[in-house]
Amino acid sequence: ARLVVLVSGSGTNLQALLDAVHDDPDGFGAEIVAVGADRDGIAGLDRARSAGLPTFVRKVKDYATREEWDRALAEATAAYEPDLVVSAGFMKIVGKTFLDRFGGRFVNTHPALLPSFPGAHGVRDALAYGAKVTGCTVHFVDDGVDTGPIIAQSAVDVRDEDDEAALHERIKEIERQLLVDVVGRLARNGYRIEGRKVVIP
Ligand code: GRF
Q: Does the active-site annotation cover 139?
């Protein structure tokens, strides 16, 4: 399967996918064909370039409307003919054009146990709430924010001494493993989305 991965930051989830493909190019069942971002100057793009991958950047501020940005992102992504698009720390909400094109084959990873703590600060929100257990969720993207059908989740204990950074790092250790496992299974086995249920044979 052909993957396009979208990033906005350090790209450690991207790196986990790159390593999985590199360690088992035939067995993993997917290859990353391009990496896209909504901004320049991030480690995620450096990781892609180090791996010899093509990259593209589409910044919201370069377009007159959000819809034009969304269309540009969809077209840049479509140019690589992906089977699956993976949001790995991509911090923009895509719109109708992107979802019309890639809905049902667009996966996101979120650092909380959805439906708890959706949005851009899931780790901070769980900590502030006093949650004792949080974790990460890999799900298909729908037209809501972090509301699409859940594929897999992993739990992570919250420690009394945790601050946001420490908790997020501990979550990301687990999140990277979950994302690699899920993307590999989707790519190798195929899948069906039945309402809110995701079936991977
Ligand atoms: C991940 O925890 C992701 O779930 C969240 O931001 C983090 C991105 O980390 N949206 P990285 O860029 O993959 O290192």
A: no
